[in-house]
Write a structure and sequence with these properties.
Order of helices and strands of chain A: HHHHHHHHHHH
Oligomer: heterodimer
Shape of chain B: extended
Largest sheet of chain A: none
CATH topology of the largest domain in chain B: MetI-like fold
Helix content of chain B: 40-55%
CATH architecture of the largest domain in chain B: Orthogonal Bundle
Structural class of chain A: mainly alpha
CATH architecture of the largest domain in chain A: Orthogonal Bundle
CATH superfamily of the largest domain in chain B: MetI-like
Largest sheet of chain B: 7 strands, antiparallel
Distance between the termini of chain A: 59 Å
Distance between the termini of chain B: 41 Å
Number of domains of chain B: 2
Number of domains of chain A: 2
Order of helices and strands of chain B: HHHHHEEEEEEEEEEEEEHHHHHHHHHHH
Radius of gyration of chain A: 27 Å
CATH class of the largest domain in chain A: Mainly Alpha
Structural class of chain B: alpha+beta
CATH topology of the largest domain in chain A: MetI-like fold
CATH superfamily of the largest domain in chain A: MetI-like
Number of helices of chain A: 11
Strand content of chain A: under 5%
Amino acid sequence: MQSSLPKNLIKIENNLKSLTRTRSIYSFLSIAALIAIIYSGLIVAETGNATSIWVGLPKFFDYPIDLFVGSWEYGYRWNLLLLEYLPDLISTINMALFSTAIGTLLAFFLSIFSSRNLIKSKTTVLIFRRIMDVCRSFPELVIALVLLYLLGKSALPAVIAIIIHTAGALGKLFSEAIENVDKNPIEGLESCGASWFTRIRFGVVTQALPLFLTYTILRFEINIRASTILGFVGAGGIGEQLYTNIQWKYEADTIAIMFLLVSTIIALDYLSSYWRKSLIGLKS
Amino acid sequence: MNRSEIIENYSDIVVTKFSSKVWSTFLVLGIIVYLIIAILSLDILQIHKKWSPERASLFALDTYAHKDHVTMKWSEPNDIIISFEGSRWSQYVGPYQKSDGLPARYPEWTSIGPEGETKISFKNGGFANLYNDKVTIENWPNTQETLVFRLDAQGKPYVENADNLPKWIRVTENKIEVRPSLYERVQIYSKKVEVHRYNLGWNYFWFDFDSPLEPYGIWNAISLSFSGDRIDPNISNFSLLIQEFLNNDMWHHGQILWALLETIFMALLGTLLAALLGFPLAFFAAYNITPFKFVRTILRRLFDTLRGIDFLIWSLIFLRAFGPGPFTGIFAIAITDTGTLGKLMSEAIENTEEKQQEGVESTGANKTLQHRFGIIPQILPIFISQTLYYLESNTRGAVIIGAMGAGGIGLQLLGAINTGTSWENVMYMSLLILGVVIFMDTMSSKVRRALIGDETLGAELQLAKMAKK
């Protein structure tokens, strides 16, 4: 049967066979790699962990049950606790908002200097990109812990740490947005004799603004989570309250704080995804 | 066309509306007012009060330099202790006896002077001499005379030739501190004299103080490991090298590298687990795959809950169940990201084109094959790029979860910071973390580019791109 087929068809058939073989080798290799990673990871985890996975899993609900039982015993005054911790929540949001604002401003300047279509000098672009890389790669926690040691316990170290991280992370996204803008408006402005600043203001910013806003809103959401975590290590706000109450085993307070946090995050999540989608035209 | 004609004909484009002017003014004013309130409420103006330059410069110095301590008690002037970083465990040959002459191992910057005093030479060319009853400093910059410090009858330190002392000598009631620059420091107390001598670099980084390989240095030790006689007759030089490096008592390489591995695996396994859970669940939450509304709604709400309860709270819950260790981190990351990836992927599935699925259906393929060849190829790029993006950000997250109590490099770092003295270790760990995060970042963007060939786009932009097609 095969011999009766035209020659080029046999060639295609063989080609297909060899492609299928390569493909199955690749998928086999990637599955093997995956299994190797999972297996070695589990070994590392099992050695490093205090409790084995089979002992730990059934205890998963212990803590949530403890919390609920504790707050049940606390009684009906539980909802007053929400009011009590509201100021702390506001101070955490304040930290996040302020550092997002300043960080975005810094990110904007950094991104202009690290975009190839705005800056001719390659070294400048490279230097600013590396600066952003370093700012972005340090976890906020590391910077915050060192600054907490140097400046004492207050919100300031957390704000500085978040600003640094925000500047790096947003700067990269901003410069990608700037590099992807349409060249024509910039060239048009240039042909009218517009200055460098005017070109950026009317040629770049007008095009990239929706993206900038999208990224900034997303970053604000991330920063609220970050400032809560930094509260844990001494930056104040609701994170610190959560930490203290967990240490003191005040279940009702703990759950009130968790409730505030989760509802804030969920509300913000909905709000920001709505804004973002309307900004980039996913919802019209 | 002149200016007024342009304004007349294109007024809707050229002239800004009054209402939008009002709005933008209010917006700018609002932002300024908020910034002022925030600056006041966050105590930003107090920064100069909290910032102590001395503490900061000591901190900075400690990250890249090390110091040797020389301590002499006035009560036992012959028993001078020379130690590295003032540690009891790293003394240059235990009580350093002047009467027996210099011991076999002593720092080259110490010597015995003509009157039996111990001379400590500094990098600035000066000396500090420890006598039985006095301390002198000679030949220090900007001062020609030799300054003599003694104890008075009440046992308080004083300077013998006290007129026109240089500014860098601070005399208080119980202590005299001589500190011409950050690199040398002589402190005279009523009980003891303490001399700090700073050197650049991380000392004993490869091998610790007591290691048999320490005198060789790293390069000689490496060449010894391939040839030469055994230093320790029991094991080969190569295994000795590895063992001594990992068990370094000052830098704890073995411990730190293991912690780093734990953190990497936390991120890796957490993200992998999230991908394995989130991907199939996303299909059940997409309306073009699952016709049952209540299944979709339940899954959607589940994703929202998993995501909304921050990984901080998840890690607290898992910490109670598993105790400190990587499992806590793995599960906290996996649970949070199952929510995120699930939501994202279900939106991506809903945005896929129907035509490809219909094409597969026209060949007579069943539902499973339709999904396999009609939908998965469309959503695979966004799935891979998002998973890689989460892997990268989870590496940072794993450090944070670690510090919250899950172990790994985060906890090590927190411990080192809390000691308040081992800043060189903090620096070392920070650089390791930085290296790992940058490595993950580059690797994931390389893989992404190789697989997808597109630059990194945010999730929403990829969705928008799909929707516009």
